[in-house]
Amino acid sequence: MTAPLSIFKCIECGKEYDIRDIRYRCDCGHLLEVIHDLNTSIPNASDWKASLNGRMGETAFFRYQNLLFPSLPKESIISLQEGDTPLYDVSHRFPEFGSLKLKHEGMNPTLSFKDRGMVAGVSWANDLGCKHVICASTGDTSAAMAAYAGAVPNMQGIVLLPRGKISPDQL
Predict the structure, then answer these.
(1) Does some domain include residue 46?
(2) Which residue range(s) make up the domain with 159?
(3) In sequence order, what DSSP letters do the residues of 97-109 get, joined into one string?
(4) Which of 96, 115, 117, 122 could be bridged to 108 by S-S, CB 3.0 to 4.6 A?
(5) How many domains does the structure of the chain reveal?
(6) Is 0.90 topped by the overall pTM?
(7) Which helix (H) or strand (E) holds 86?
């Protein structure tokens, strides 16, 4: 049997868990880290380069999937065409910084960089067969989660809002 591409590993005691286990902490109570075996995914630098170059034009998550989440099957990924946002050279405005570029994350589907993380979270929930995803947020995270959960058939997104901490404009 081959080793898994991804595992959970306790940051304190080192205990390992299957990546498909739905758990939030180690049995010892400490946090878990996601560990990817990138050498199994793509073994050498020339293969990495070929993999990335061969995915030019794909959305950011698909392009970098072997790095970000190698054990997630492509068919489980829920993409709203996030990423590939414009990069603006503003070096002329701030010459003291040398080469300076700004990324325009407002061009993402929900107008936020939160889409980049939500594609991974909701795609993983989709792969696990989850029917509900939930978050607590007053802003961009809730918008991103609602959009990505809404793109999955039969998945319900639940947003918890703190009383009195959100403006009507954010809704």
Answers:
(1) no
(2) 60-170
(3) GSS-EEE-GGGST
(4) 115
(5) 1
(6) no
(7) none
